[in-house]
Amino acid sequence: MNIGIFGGSFNPIHNGHIALARQMRKAIALDEIWLMVTPLNPFKAKETNLLRDDLRLSLAREALKNEPHLQARNDEFQLLKPSYTWQTLQHLSKTYPQHSFTLIIGADNWLAFDRWRNWQDILANYPIAIYPREGCPIDAATLPRNVTLVDMPLYPISSTQIRERISRRESLLGLVPRCIISRVRKEYRAFEKKKKNENKNEA
Question: Which of 8, 13, 36, 130 is the most buried (most CB within 10 A)?
């Protein structure tokens, strides 16, 4: 099978992630897309708002339960941290030799791609599909042979926006799948409360 690898913190997963994955799968004729829940992004090593790995994975799996071509995966949980995409792709290729893998990244990540660990090896060994991001223009004519810029809508939803709405007790309708709204509120409010208590104890 042809599998798309869409990595992220998914902190939490939201409707933008899901719509994007659906669109990308159709646009580049993939059999499935694996949403790779990342334990520790090297570019977000100081992130303090990250819900526990197992909870983000569980929420993502519940959100995708009616999406037969999308899977939330924990493959990176067993790998060395921080999570470098090259080691993830190598692990997947070795573990699932029957599949071929395409890396799915945003335009912002493509513009910083030469900062990634082993980026030249990724480029030499795997197709890359780029989705648009606001304020990150890319000229498709300048892209390497195995890199595709997919023409698709922008999805202006962010996990940060969702966490802020939870803090302000605002509605999440239309932002995250209905089936996980109550759990998202519960888990992130508990996480926020725990952080506040820890900060009090440190003061």
Answer: 13
